[in-house]
Specification:
Layout (H helix, E strand, L loop, with lengths): L6 H39 L5 H17 L1 H15 L1 H20 L4 H4 L2 H30 L6 H29 L2 H6 L4 H17 L6 H12 L12 H5 L2 H21 L3 H7 L5 H29 L2 H23 L4 H19 L2 H6 L7 H17 L2 H10 L4 H20 L10 H6 L15 H9 L2
Length: about 475
């Protein structure tokens, strides 16, 4: 049994967990609130008589935001590897605050034609850059700041905070649905959550400036300052350095594919699916999503702790098998759900399956790379996979629905999960990877932690190399 860290070390880790998670919560609140309120502001920017077409237009702008995630992942991932996780986290929340404010003041079609849609587009591009860096910076920060035998638990709070951000948005939506009329929500009420998002981000900016840098990054910076070929500071956080880990980057994309499609299917798209396909009232569908996501958030730490005991692969494989064979029957049953309880039960079943991915994917990705390129290695391939598959999931679903072949989307989700399943089966477990020289020295492998020629040390590098 490992020795217990001193009280001040445990306190430091708890503060890092709280600080990193709260900031992540606000970031993802701003990101998801767009999708939650789209059913109320779609016709304000895109006139027409077809609600599905209007939602497709807003979903298209939602998807465009994902196209900037690789750019944000590259720029902010590089910043996190060169200047620290803390500085990157502070920058991302600043960008998100500005984007939320732009959406809050965007003029409608009746006020300025399609200029309002252009403002929406620009705001989503800025949000895409911000969230592209936020995922990697927070995943890296939460993983590095956790004790080695609790990295699954620590990293699980990324999706706890992500989900709580979405719940905050849904909670505000439910509150407004019960205090404002539908006409008021469609006229001006939808702007309120974006105003609140900008204010929340300012508070988090203050909080994140008080976070402490992780020991792994400080160790890497000290090694770089000491000089030497093994610690060439000029390549830290660069594409050149990432190229040495191109196999690991490809692995991140493959293991992300199924998880991101499933996650967005059962979170952002779920409310629209219950309204548009099952014929459920908007308020009931929103309540189903809110309740299911609350329980989903509670599950994350337990699954993270389980992965610290049995490894990461068993959870990933369980998710992929469940999603591959379960998506079609679950989505078909949801499409005919006639009550709150039946929809809730099916939604929970789907999200329990997805938990096998969401609870640990941040740790798995961070455990594949050395410190000098960890943030960029997590950020860029993850953002590319999200731009291609996660951000387009809702649009693809609505496109199939509009063309009269809605069930084809269910097979699409299953196919993506199947590709990831093959990856999970072939890859080794990353639970025992050493993320710092101190951890490698504890394993008796300190001499291998030089980062030279693509080596990170046997504990950290072996999982990624063995996968190929």
């Amino acid at each position: 049994m490992p020795a217990q860290p001193p009280a001040d070390e445990r306190r430091k880790r708890r503060l890092a967990l709280v600080g990193g998670s709260l900031g992540n919560l606000v970031e993802w609140y701003d990101w998801f609130v767009y999708a939650s309120f789209a059913i109320y502001f779609a016709d304000s920017f895109f006139p027409g008589d077809n609600p599905t077409t209007q939602l497709m237009n807003t979903a298209g702008i939602f998807a465009v935001g994902f196209l900037m995630r690789p750019v944000g992942g590259w720029i902010l991932g590089r910043a996190a590897d060169r200047h620290g996780r803390k500085s990157a986290l502070t920058l991302t929340v600043t960008m998100m605050s500005v984007a939320a404010l732009l959406i809050a003041v965007a003029p409608t079609y009746g006020q300025a034609g399609y200029f309002g849609a252009l403002v929406l587009l620009l705001a989503r591009l800025l949000q895409g850059m911000s969230i592209g860096g936020e995922y990697a910076a927070s995943a890296t920060y939460l993983t590095e700041a956790s004790a080695r035998n609790r990295r699954g638990l620590g990293s699980s709070f990324q999706y706890v905070s992500m989900t709580c951000g979405q719940l905050l948005g849904l909670g505000i939506l439910i509150t407004l649905q019960h205090t404002l009329t539908t006409a008021q929500l469609e006229s001006w009420g939808w702007r309120l959550p974006f105003v609140l998002g900008a204010l929340f981000a300012l508070i988090v900016f203050w909080l994140r400036r008080r976070l402490q840098e992780t020991d792994a990054f400080k160790e890497e910076s000290a090694s770089a300052e000491a000089g030497g070929e093994a610690h060439d500071d000029s390549t830290r956080g660069t594409l050149k350095a990432l190229w040495q880990y191109r196999r690991q980057a490809g692995l991140v994309m493959a293991l992300t594919l199924g998880g991101t499609v499933a996650y967005y299917t059962y979170t952002t798209y779920l409310t629209k699916y219950l309204v548009g396909s099952a014929g459920m009232e908007k308020t009931t569908a929103t309540l189903v999503s809110f309740t299911a996501l609350t329980l989903f958030a509670v599950l994350q730490p337990f699954a993270g702790m389980l992965s610290d005991r049995i490894g990461r692969r068993p959870l990933l494989i369980t998710f992929a098998v469940g999603c591959t064979v379960g998506t079609y029957p679950i989505m078909t049953a949801l499409g005919s759900a006639s009550s709150y309880w039946s929809a809730l039960g099916l939604s929970l079943l789907a999200l329990v399956i997805v938990t096998g991915y969401t609870s640990i994917n941040a740790a798995v990705k961070a455990e594949l790379f050395p410190t000098r390129v960890r943030a960029l290695g997590v950020a860029l391939p993850y953002a590319i996979a999200n731009a291609l598959f996660g951000g387009t999931a809702e649009y693809v679903a609505l496109w199939f629905k509009n063309s009269g072949h809605e069930t084809m989307f269910f097979w699409y989700v299953s196919g993506c999960a199947l590709i990831s399943l093959v990856t999970y089966v072939l890859m080794p477990d990353t639970r025992n990877a050493a993320l710092s020289r101190a951890e490698a020295e504890a394993d008796g492998e300190g001499d291998d932690m030089d980062g030279g020629k693509g080596d990170q040390g046997r504990s950290a590098a072996a999982p990624a190399e063995a996968a190929h």
